[in-house]
Amino acid sequence: MQHPFHYDPEDDLSRRIYLHRCDGVVRAFTDSVQQLERFSERYNKKFFSIPLKWAKKLRWMSVAVQSALQREHINYANLLDMWYYFLQLKKTFFNPIADVANKHMYPGGFTSRNMLLTYNLWGVIESQTFHYELSDHVNFAPPASILHKVFMEPFAIFDIDIFRPISDNWRQFFDDPRYVFRRVIDVENEQRAMLRPPTPPPAENGTSRSASPDMHAESDEEEEDLTYYIGMEDGEFGLFEQISAF
Q1: What are the phi and psi torsion angles at 72 (to 5°)?
Q2: Which domain holds residue 113?
Q3: Residue 5 counted as domain residue
Q4: DSSP 3-state assignment of 94?
Q5: pLDDT, tens digit, for every residue of 146-164?
Q6: What is the pLDDT of residues 164-182, one digit of tens each?
Q7: Taking a C-beta distance cutoff of 8 angstroms, is the pair 191, 133 a contact?
Q8: Does a structural domain hold residue 209?
């Protein structure tokens, strides 16, 4: 099968694009470390210790790759191995830690029960002593609770292969400051819009036949129950400390 991209993967333009991608990962983990450190100092060091440890480790590794890409002479074979190892650690530890946080801290939030279960499962992931069916990708849906969203922000870092093939679109964007960069998703959306059938006009009375007001009211009540959440400010950290000490 013929490779779709024709360029030197080790030329200076490629290096600058790899570095641009790596910069984004470093920023994401720097923000993650800062947020988790703030949570740890303000609320509870023990509970946040495991995710903070892995965020720091992955930030350190991404900074090492970033520094290597800024040098004059680059050993790409070494860097590819380093980045592969980085992604493996992220998928083995950080992503499952995020998955546990998302599944077991919502609904309810920072109850002692939720925190104890989450903390114990984080320990299981770290020790690799038990196979727990978790997602190794950061693909959780946006949470309904704003308080849970605040908690999950440090975990929402996607897997990025910074050395993946580079499209002509990206190379032109980096080479020519006047070039208007178009994301692949924008092009695909335009193509879909051209193929999409026209939207039917609304009903004369302006209402939809798909749902009645009563159904909406019932849905709102269910959503309110699902979004019950104790935020970090009111979290049961003292009780968590007592129970987890045994």
Answers
A1: -75, -40
A2: 12-191+224-244
A3: no
A4: helix
A5: 899 999 999 999 899 999 9
A6: 998 887 788 777 766 565 5
A7: no
A8: no
